[in-house]
Amino acid sequence: MKTFVKLCWIFLFVAGKLFSQQSITGQITDGSTIHVNPVLIINISAQKSSLSTMSGNFTIDASENDEVRFVKEGYYRFEKKITKEDLASPLHIILKRMEIQIPEVEIVYKPTGNLAKDSKYLSESGKLKALKSDITMYMKSPLNEPMPDHTISKTFTGHDFNAGQVNAAGVFKAISGIIKKASKPKITKADYNETQNFLTRVKSEINLDFLKKYGMDEEQIDRFLLYANKTRMLAKNYRKDFQNDVVEYEIKVAFGEYRKLHKLDSWEK
Question: Rg of the chain over CA atoms, in angstroms?
Fold first, then answer.
C-alpha cells in the first residue's frame, strides 16, 4: 500500500512538471511580407535560446512574465514580456532594419555624352590604381633619410645681428610645452570607488549599442566592462583625462579579444 501511494505521488509530481512547461510560437517579419531569418530568440528569464526557421517561424519554451529577446544583425533588437494571451496564440514579431547612411560622392567631371571618352575618364587603369596605392603608402611611411635644411652657407651670409640675443619665440614655445606637460593629470592607480564612477561614466557617455547586437544584456555588458578595465587599465589611464573617442577605441580593442575568448560570433547568426 505504501509503495502504491509513493508511486501516485511520483506520478502527480511528473505530471505537474510536464503540464507546467509551456512555449510560445510565432513568425518574424520586417513589417511586410518578407520573413526575417535566422533570428536568435533568447528567453532571458529561463536562460534558453533558439533560432527561427528559414520561413521566419519560431518556437521557444516560455512562461508568463518571462522576458524574451529577438536579436538579428542589421536589425534593432526587440524585447517582449510574455502574457497569458501570448501563450494562447501565435505571435507576430516585427524587427525594424537599422538605417545605413551612404556617404555622398561628388563627381567633379562633367560627362560629354561621348561614351568612349567618358568611360576612359571615369575608369582607372590597374597601373594607375597601383601607382596611387604606392604613393599613399610612401606618404604614410616614416622618413628614412634626413631632409635638407635649405640653409645658406655662412660664407655667403652677412653678420648675424641676432647672435647672442634671446629668441623670444623659442622661449615662449618651450614655456608653453612645459605648462602643457605640467597641466596633464598624473596617472595613478584607481581605487574601488574611482573605478565604479569611471565605469558608470563609460555607460552614460560611450555608445555601447554594438555590444547589444551580440545578445548581451546589462549584466553581461557590466561583466565585459570589468574585463576591459582590467586588461586595458581604463580607469587608471583615463578617469582623470576622459576622452570619449580614446575610451571608445580602447573598449573596442578589448572587445575584440573578449569576443574570441567567449565565442560570441555565434550570437550574430
Answer: 32
Residue 241 burial by CB count (10 A; 0-12/13-18/19+): exposed, middle or buried? exposed
Residue 143 has what pLDDT?
59
Whole-angstrom distance, CA of residue 137 vs CA of residue 131: 10
SS3 24: strand
| Spatial distance between the Cα atoms of 167 and 160, rounded to a whole number of angstroms | 13
- The whole-number mean pLDDT for each consecutive block of 10 residues of the chain, a chain of 269 residues, reads 58 50 90 87 94 93 95 93 93 89 61 69 60 67 56 54 54 57 78 93 92 88 94 94 93 91 67
pLDDT of residue 103: 58
With CA atoms as reference, report the closest residue to 22 among 53, 79, 64. 64
Residue owning grid cell 618651450: 174
Q: What is the structure's pLDDT at 205?
A: 95
- CB 158, CB 205: distance < 8 Å: no
How far is it, in rounded angstroms, from Cα 51 to Cα 28? 11
**Helix/strand/coil for 45:** coil
Cα separation of 225 and 162, whole Å? 58
Joined together, the cell numbers standing for residue 41 give 530568440
**What pLDDT score does 71 carry?**
95
Find the length of the chain.
269
Question: How far is residue 226's CA from residue 250's CA, in Å, rounded to a whole number?
Answer: 13
Buried b (16+ CB within 10 A) or exposed e, 104-123: eeeeeeeeeeeeeeeeeeee
pLDDT of residue 189: 92
